[in-house]
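It would be a great kindness if you could assist me with a short task in structural biology. The matter concerns a single protein, recorded as an amino acid sequence and a row of backbone structure tokens. Kindly check, if you would, that the fold set down in the tokens agrees with what the sequence suggests. Thank you for your consideration; the sequence and its tokens are set out here:
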Amino acid sequence: MKLKTLKTIKNLNNKRVLVRVGFDCPIKNGRVVDDSRIQQAMLTIEYLAKHKAKVILITQDRKSTRLNSSHTDISRMPS
């Protein structure tokens, strides 16, 4: 299945768009130290909002995943 890109979709008005973002930014003392990943995603988010899309953002909290998945050893997962 070939995925569509934003440039190939003619009308984003009222369309739901799922965007996977990498918001796993470094945090020190409860504050974001480097927000460059958020800033990079903003271009896409703003484009979608400008074209009246319903934006759904998903991300992964890697720190929580590591803490909660100690039973998973990815070195033994099939490739």
User: Anything to note?
Assistant: Residues 67-77 have pLDDT under 50 and may be disordered. The beta strands are 16-20, 27-28, 31-32, 54-58.
